[in-house]
Model the fold of this input.
Amino acid sequence: MPESLINDSSRSSLGLSSAMLGGTPALSFRFSVTFFIHPVVFGKTLPVPIPDILPWDMSFQKVSGLGSKISTHKLNEGGENLFVHRLPDRVEYENLILERGLLKVSTVHAPFIKSQILSFSVSSLFDDAMQEFKFNPCDVLVILHENGGIPLSSWRFRNAFPVQWKISDLDANHESLVIEHMELAYQNMSSVRI
Done:
């Protein structure tokens, strides 16, 4: 049904937004990030959302690296000098990059958090990888929201694990926030319909 035929009352009764109908581009500043651990139950690994005990540990100011591309390889055909065949090879994914202000209880206090409050936090995921070379792959769900928190689109990153952690430069000449940069590699990315 064309958007011009859908009035505001029927749009709300159908649960449709103008962004869902292609009327207005989505804004990029309303998003959420959720990590899913993989507990083993009866020999099967099941993704389970991490309890929302520490909501600050999943709050990020920027998410980037949501992208993929098809790599190709060239095939020369004998006697053909005008072109080269380019054939699809495989899907390649960028690393998922999460950024936030460095929290006072982030990486420094992660062992206390891990032992006293719960067994998983984003900080402990990175601490385990960077300090102990222990990897606990988890799924990550990034959701883009509309006004009022209605999900517009989402992306699931399977078997994500840390590959880089760094903070912004410390500079006595500038008063600015210290930004924590966390980078994750993953097996694959898929769009999740909500």
